[in-house]
From TrEMBL:
InterPro entries: CheW (IPR039315), CheW-like_dom_sf (IPR036061), CheW-lke_dom (IPR002545). The keyword Nucleus does not apply. SUPFAM superfamilies: CheW-like. CDD domains: CheW. Residues 23-162 form the CheW-like domain. Coiled coil: none annotated. This is Chemotaxis protein CheW. PANTHER family: CHEMOTAXIS PROTEIN CHEW, CHEMOTAXIS SENSOR HISTIDINE KINASE-RELATED. Pfam families: CheW. It comes from the Bacteria. It comes from Pelomonas caseinilytica. PROSITE patterns: CHEW (PS50851).
Length: 166
């Protein structure tokens, strides 16, 4: 028996396969008619929408806070923040994120799926005036006929506009 017999080939092959992956994974979600994507590594969990406890004098997009296993989590309605109307229904979800050293929930219309995009499938952001500050868009993902607006959710949450980071 040689020393190489002790290493399972399937495990070594799996590690090599992971090392070759050059794509990035994105959680895709919808707000209105637009489809967005954010880095899956920022996502802690996805929860159904429950009305949070309101916070006095908070901006309209701050829906309130919830107690998530002992952690007080601010809930931000990303739809309202982006100037879209938001209707709460069975598809409305909260994506709980871990960004900038804090846990934050964002309300979206629905979650679609998790997609892996290669560098070739990610295009540079367009240089056109947009409803959302272009500094929060990292690029556009193109998969077949689908077009995803890829967000830098960490920069968005950390921006002074959100008022969450000191």
């Amino acid at each position: 028996m040689s020393s190489t017999d002790l290493v399972p080939s399937t495990g070594a092959q799996a590690v090599q396969t992971l090392a070759r992956t050059d794509g990035r994974q994105f959680l895709t979600f919808r707000i209105g008619e637009e489809e967005y994507g954010l880095d899956i590594l920022r996502v802690q969990e996805i929860r159904s929408y429950e009305a949070p406890t309101r916070v006095a004098n908070a901006p309209a997009f701050v829906k309130g806070v919830v107690n998530l296993r002992g952690v007080i989590v601010p809930i931000l309605d990303l739809r309202v923040r982006l100037g879209q109307p938001g209707e709460y229904n069975a598809f409305t979800v909260v994506i709980v994120l871990n960004v900038a050293g804090r846990v934050v929930g964002i309300v979206v219309d629905s979650v679609s799926d998790v997609l892996e995009l290669s560098a070739e499938e990610i295009k540079a952001r367009p240089e056109v005036p947009a409803a959302m500050d272009a500094r929060f868009i990292t690029g556009l993902g193109k998969i077949g006929e689908r077009m995803l607006i890829l967000l830098d959710i960490e920069a968005m949450i950390q921006s002074p506009d959100f008022g969450l980071v000191d």
